[in-house]
Design goal:
Two copies of one chain form a homodimer. With about 400 residues, chain A is an alpha/beta fold. Chain A contains 15 helices and 13 strands. The first copy, chain A, folds into two domains: about 30-185, 3-Layer(aba) Sandwich (Rossmann fold), CATH 3.40.50; about 190-380, 3-Layer(aba) Sandwich (Rossmann fold).
């Protein structure tokens, strides 16, 4: 029949798994759960400043924030982690007003070591406080301008491997260094990621779940072009943002046949957005799949108390008395899931996080990275590049040079 | 020809404007810019607590936050405004750890006056601090359980008209009360909204822009089902969330012909997300329209300084020296807009906010409310109800009663 073609079929799970195995030799993030971190842990322990300020945009900060903000509300950490991830004048001013610069350790993160935004902030910081080996670490690829800057100023330099993209760098020094400094157990983080990796590559339960989800999303991508993450805790807000970046930047691509691919991520906080966005899900066009995330045990026993003030009877909701907020939020989640389920034609899944700790969030994040890799492989795109953001960067530099 | 039909054509601008004029008599938000606020301003001035805590979910807090977080970074306000908008145990605990309850004025906002979440929080607050006329105000509809509770406990009660929905309540007492207390000029807020209203209803420039945008979105809703807001300042983050709620809950509806309608909102922060989500916009499927929002004058003159440290030369970006962050963020925005424009087939518009003040944000928000009303009228839906969120609420109460 034909001698040439420019279309493709969706491959079998077996073929995709083979692709992933091949990819594993080139793409750096797969090996991160197995890296040696003893010296990192020791260096982190030597930092004695009260504030840690991470300067980095996108992949250089979102993963770190996702883990930090998940853990922080339920843990007493003895250091304060801050992020400068934008050149917004109002954010920069308020950040520098809030923190004591003399008692701050700066971590400058830039893969290319020359991105306009973090370097602008670095220049500004340098005018406020001299950066030296005892108050600044630098994370960048080998050979970048930032590495040379670090070496010349004797700043501690950590190398980021060139085959690890920003949005896949959460299990590298990028997130592990700041997290370790503030007292988060990075060994447990890697343990969680390792568990997922081992299950996936031995074709266990996680492998099956990831493949069935990826295949469904790819086979139905024209119909369900929007994927909604519905996280039932505000502590997952930064995780939501990390997910949006991972999904959008990895999967918004032109594939090998020159066809535009896109699964658009939307991320919501359940207890808030079930009062609004849920309307769009229930009555709107059927163009969305929903992924619910629930936390089983918040390790918080705060109760809605019973009060002897009679006027509470107006509310006619004695069923709330002595209920914990932990139970209430999970009932809320279940009620929303039930509403979605009752519609019958909205595809959804539910992920249960057993508790608020390092292992749980690491498992969730490594699973999502694998899911994105598998979807990308099904779509026959390059999951790891980002040609579409480059033109904006070039336009910016061209404009700045003309000033 | 036919004697019956169940389809419709998109109506003319003239017909839609007539609809809006009719709607104006029933839907309360249109008249809010013209309300009398003297007594509200006086009451606000009488509150002398340091912290103001708004307890309210969705429409009861998002609009307030949008204005507060836009103004706050660039203004010295003498009170601290906090929000409890979720029953997340971790959020509740951290909020009550952070603020001094004795020095706090509580504002309980619930339209129906019986929503499980704010009432649960109210019960909890009451167990920690006695609510009396001097530390608590209540905003709810007339005749609700919450109104009765307020009256019986002699709390200050503000009535919310029944024809003003939560997501259209930002120019009512819901937002004006807390904003006035912390020192934001609510007269200027209403002035901004009035200017927009007057222009729109006299078919001025804003009228033309709203109608042309609404018509485009409706005519192309099947092709471009996602609307991306690309805001160039972190101070617009809460505005973004307000927009997502307004858009999703108003426009995700079944229309008069039984057809599911949906324009899905996605909200981004430019300086951060242009490094990631932009990839999906540029190379992904053409299913998105983009609305950029830029702030012209941040009233911040922070410069990226020139430093005599020679090692900065490695970065080869002397063009940054003595550039203000204000100029840089706007160059960033322009570079991204240029990238999108270069694609030629991505519909976009750009809104310029002249400065960070009450009038600017009010104009933006009232314009968006009118836009949503006009789109809703074109789609022949009920823009102001939310039947799709009710089933979740009912499921929750049913489950709680069974415990």
């Amino acid at each position: 029949m034909f001698n040439e073609r420019n279309y493709y079929q969706i491959k079998s799970d077996h073929q995709i798994f083979d692709n992933i195995i091949k990819e594993k030799k080139k793409v750096g993030y797969y090996e991160l759960p197995f890296i040696e971190i003893e010296s990192l842990v020791q260096y982190a322990a030597s930092i004695n400043k009260k504030n840690i300020l991470v300067v980095g945009i996108g992949g250089s900060s979102l993963g770190t924030r996702a883990i930090y903000e998940f853990i922080k509300p339920s843990r007493k950490l003895n250091k304060n982690l801050e992020f400068l991830e934008t050149i917004d004048p109002l954010k920069i001013s308020s950040c520098f007003k809030r923190i004591d610069l003399e008692n701050t350790h700066f971590i400058i993160v830039s893969k290319s070591g020359k991105t306009v935004e973090p370097i602008s902030i670095l220049r500004y910081i340098y005018s406020r406080v001299k950066l030296v080996s005892s108050n600044c670490s630098v994370i960048t690829e080998k050979g970048t301008p930032l590495m040379h800057f670090a070496n010349e100023n004797k700043l501690k330099f950590f190398e980021l491997d060139s085959n690890i993209g920003g949005r896949f760098s959460v299990f590298s020094v990028v997130a592990l260094l700041p997290l370790a400094i503030v007292g988060i157990d990075i060994k447990k983080i890697l343990k969680g990621a390792r568990d997922v990796s081992n299950d996936f590559f031995s074709k266990g339960e996680i492998y099956s779940k990831i493949f069935s989800k990826a295949r469904f999303l790819v086979e139905n991508k024209a119909r369900f072009n929007i994927n909604v993450l519905f996280s039932y805790s505000s502590s997952l807000e930064a995780f939501n943002r990390w997910y949006v970046q991972l999904w959008a930047e990895s999967l918004g691509k032109i594939n090998i046949n020159g066809t535009r691919q896109a699964l658009t991520p939307v991320a919501l906080i359940g207890p808030i957005d079930q009062h609004s966005f849920l309307q769009l899900i229930i009555d709107g066009v059927r163009d969305k799949t929903i992924s619910f995330i629930k936390i089983q045990d918040f390790a918080d026993s705060t109760l809605i108390p019973k009060d002897k003030n009679k006027s509470f009877e107006y509310f006619n909701n004695a069923y709330l008395e002595n209920l914990s907020f932990n139970a209430l939020i999970n009932h809320q989640a279940d009620a929303t899931i039930e509403s979605v389920k009752a519609e019958k034609d909205i595809p959804f899944d539910v992920t249960l996080i057993p508790q608020v700790d390092e292992t749980s969030i690491a498992k969730l994040m490594f699973s999502y990275q694998l899911l994105v890799s598998v979807i990308g492989s099904f779509l026959q795109i390059d999951t790891y590049n980002q040609p579409g953001v480059e033109s904006g960067k070039e336009n910016l530099i061209t404009a700045l040079k003309k000033i």
